[in-house]
Amino acid sequence: MDKTAPFPIVVLISGNGSNLQAIIDAKLPIEIKAVISNRSNAYGLERARKAHIPTEIIDHTQFSNRDTFDEALAACIKKYQPKLIVLAGFMRILGEKFIHQFEGKIINLHPSLLPKYPGLRTHEQAIQNKDCLHGCTVHYVTADLDAGPIIRQASLVVADDDTPESLQAKVHELEHRLLPESIRDIIRGQ
Ligand code: GRF
């Protein structure tokens, strides 16, 4: 294998794409082959276009069920032959069949210190439970939601006056370092 060739990745997004931006700005030895969004109005698509990265939209509302959406997404990803699929704010749950096809090659960024708080509303839960520490996790995706092997985590101390909104902003800053570092780890261990 040519270890000097840029590592081919595909990034899946649903929204703002600030973590996509962090990957682009980190100047990693990667080639982002495509950015794929399930929402046509995701601002992350604009970020990709500005960086001259091919974009694709697979609009989940155009599919009658999850399986057909997953199949279209898988076919789209395969065109680009990535070694890594990065879920960076991709807000769809992927089915088992999809995950098994790419097992070991999909990573997800999650805004909590897993195994605490899989799923949604992580910042609210950290505040409600009066947690001292909160943070984010990059992990491999397996068929169990937000439960695959952890690659890296980053944490912060929750302040007395933190709100879900302030925590979200702080966690976002951590994420912007954590995700590129995790991708770097994977490339080094390839
Ligand atoms: C991040 O907080 C990530 O943890 C969660 O979705 C958010 C995406 O933010 N899964 P952005 O679109 O990268 O700005």
Describe this protein with a few key phrases.
190 residues, alpha/beta, 7-stranded mixed beta sheet, globular, binds 5-O-phosphono-beta-D-ribofuranosylamine
Order of helices and strands: EHEHEHEHEHEEH
Poorly predicted residue ranges: none
**Beta-strand percent range:** 15-25%
Shape: globular
Query: Count of helices?
Result: 6
| DSSP strand tally | 7
Mean pLDDT: 96
Radius of gyration: 16 Å
Main pleated sheet: 7 strands, mixed
List the bound ligands: 5-O-phosphono-beta-D-ribofuranosylamine
Portion of residues within helices:
25-40%
Class derived from helix and strand content: alpha/beta
Distance between the termini: 10 Å
Sequence of strands across the biggest β-sheet: 3-2-1-4-5-6-7
